[in-house]
Amino acid sequence: MAAKGAHITQNSIEARPSIFEVVAADSLNATFYPALKRIANFLATIKPGTFGSLVRYYDEAYLLFTWVVQRYYLRHKGGSLSEVFYGLTRISARTQNLDHTGQRWSLICLVMAPYVYRKFEQRLHQWKDDYENGKPVSQNKVLLTKVVPYLRAYFEGVKLFQYISYLAGIGPTHSPVLRALNLTLTYLAEEEESWTIRDLLGGQVKLAAMLSTVMLRTLELSAFFLQFIEWWQNEANMGDLSKLPIPDAPPADFNSEKYKGVCPLCLQRWLIPTAVSISGYVYCYRCIVSHLQKENKCPVTKYPATVNDLVRIFDDEDDV
């Protein structure tokens, strides 16, 4: 684990992790969701029929996966996967250990709260898009779309204040969530390996214990792989897209010939031609907007699409 390399010179009296260790644990925990989602998207592009539902219900699958993993680490290691990876564990500020109540609330904050927040964010984006596109939205929902960014900024300010106070040695913890749960982080006591290769060959190790240890070590080492994916994706996004070769246009299919020069919905000459960027088909602006507000998919290809995916096309008949 990373803790063994990070605490070679650690004094046994020192129990307060550095700000770099706690921030690294938070960063690793935030990496799991997007990194695993990229893997799910990659699998879906290879086999859409098999892994398409994984992308569609990714939030629920991730919720179940993290619930199982984080519950195990909280019960047996006293911290989340990312915290244990960096050699940290959670303890109560009063009892100096993590009781069942602390485990339960930690699990809710680690797993359930992010899931609910992501779903709430999706609703906020939907309400904002509907409001901007002229669809009826209640005033309470519109008010939420305007207030939530300020609440998010306030929470980030509280986090920054907690970081500064922890760095200055004033605050007991770096996280406002841990502060609310009356928990803090300390170093995890190193444990000896429960079995060796000699024990395995001698038949002194149960198969369940061996598989459990192997799975846990694989899961912890996978954190390195997930961090690499995040770094690789960021490096790829920073590249100059203008240096990439321009691909050839896809060949025309039956529908492209069928709807050549006309709107696939009204079958008339385009009025304010507008393309759906997801599929490339061109429609009348009013036709496609009305359709997307009801169906949320391209009428021809059935690909998921919204009003935000529309691109206005200017032809020779437009006045300049």
UniProtKB/TrEMBL annotation:
The record's annotation in InterPro entries points to: PEX12, Pex_N, Znf_RING/FYVE/PHD
The main place the protein resides is membrane
One Pfam family of this protein, by short name? Pex2_Pex12
**Coiled-coil residues:** none
At the top level, the lineage of the source is Eukaryota
Ranges of residues in domain Pex N-terminal? 26-234
Mind listing the UniProt keywords for this protein, alphabetically?
Answer: Membrane, Metal-binding, Peroxisome, Protein transport, Transmembrane, Transmembrane helix, Transport, Zinc, Zinc-finger
Q: Which CDD domains match?
A: mRING_PEX12
Its annotated pathway reads: Protein modification; protein ubiquitination
- Membrane-related topology note: Multi-pass membrane protein
Location in the cell reads: Peroxisome membrane
Q: Which PANTHER family is this protein grouped with?
A: PEROXISOME ASSEMBLY PROTEIN 12, PEROXISOME ASSEMBLY PROTEIN 12 PEROXIN-12
Described by its record, this protein's role is as follows: Component of a retrotranslocation channel required for peroxisome organization by mediating export of the PEX5 receptor from peroxisomes to the cytosol, thereby promoting PEX5 recycling.
Family, per the entry?
Answer: Belongs to the pex2/pex10/pex12 family.
What is this protein called in UniProt?
Peroxisome assembly protein 12
Tell me the organism's taxonomic lineage: Eukaryota, Metazoa, Ecdysozoa, Arthropoda, Hexapoda
